[in-house]
Structure to design on (257 residues):
């Protein structure tokens, strides 16, 4: 089945990935949803269909080297093309620099960095044919590393550098590449963090969540839908000249210029 525009969204079962899939369903004819949780993917697929886009789900673990081949084969067999690749999958554990093991470092990088790298490389020829777009999901920790979340900062910084490298090649090949660095977005993962953090600091979850924005110097937490709107702009015709950029959306939390 050939359609006129196809997006691939990884991490599409929850949070920013889910919000992005639903937002892109308004702009693309078809969306391939990729994540490990098949049950959640099926629920998101129903919502995508209700928006009006065709869809296909693929339950895959992008930490596995062969997964990139499976994703690209699935989308090309089903829809015939790739116009946008949204690398959103990946959660890096927030463990202190002096406590994090080699295995935890390796696992943190395996999905968010190397999974996205392999998938982008495998999809590159298809993206060249459509003059397509790629977005990598980073985060503002890359700009302000701290011992408590060193791996998050290091891997996010590596993602920004990786995106810049792909963007440079993309200028020659006609593929647009950018990265996005969200700040404190309220997702299920972030709430789970507060559920663990708050008792250790003698607070309720609600107290911890109410205090954080003030401490971070922002008015509120971000919403997944706000990041999804930004991503949708980056892969839209209006942003086609924008490439090699690391776009920050953090409610003003980052104070440097």
């Amino acid at each position: 089945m050939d359609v006129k525009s196809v997006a691939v969204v990884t991490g599409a079962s929850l949070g920013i990935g889910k919000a992005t899939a639903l937002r892109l369903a308004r702009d693309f004819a078809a969306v391939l949803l990729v994540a490990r949780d098949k049950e959640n993917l099926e629920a998101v697929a129903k919502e995508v269909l209700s928006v009006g886009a065709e869809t296909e789900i693929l339950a895959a673990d992008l930490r596995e080297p062969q997964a990139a081949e499976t994703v690209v084969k699935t989308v090309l067999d089903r829809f015939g093309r790739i116009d946008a690749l949204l690398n959103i999958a990946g959660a890096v554990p927030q463990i202190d620099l002096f406590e994090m093991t080699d295995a935890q470092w390796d696992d943190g990088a395996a999905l968010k960095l190397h999974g996205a790298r392999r998938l982008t490389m495998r999809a590159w020829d298809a993206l060249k044919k459509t003059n397509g777009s790629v977005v990598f999901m980073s985060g503002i920790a890359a700009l302000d590393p701290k011992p408590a979340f060193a791996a998050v900062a290091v891997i996010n910084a590596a993602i920004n550098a990786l995106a810049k490298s792909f963007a440079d090649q993309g200028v020659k090949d006609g593929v647009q590449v950018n990265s996005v660095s969200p700040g404190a977005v309220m997702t299920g993962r972030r709430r789970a963090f507060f559920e663990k953090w708050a008792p250790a600091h003698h607070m309720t979850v609600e107290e911890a969540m109410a205090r954080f924005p003030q401490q971070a110097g922002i008015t509120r937490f971000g919403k997944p839908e706000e990041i999804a709107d930004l991503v949708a702009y980056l892969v839209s015709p209006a942003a086609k000249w924008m490439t090699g950029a690391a776009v920050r959306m953090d409610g003003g939390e980052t104070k440097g210029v």
User: Anything to note?
Assistant: The mean pLDDT is 95. The longest helix spans residues 102-130.
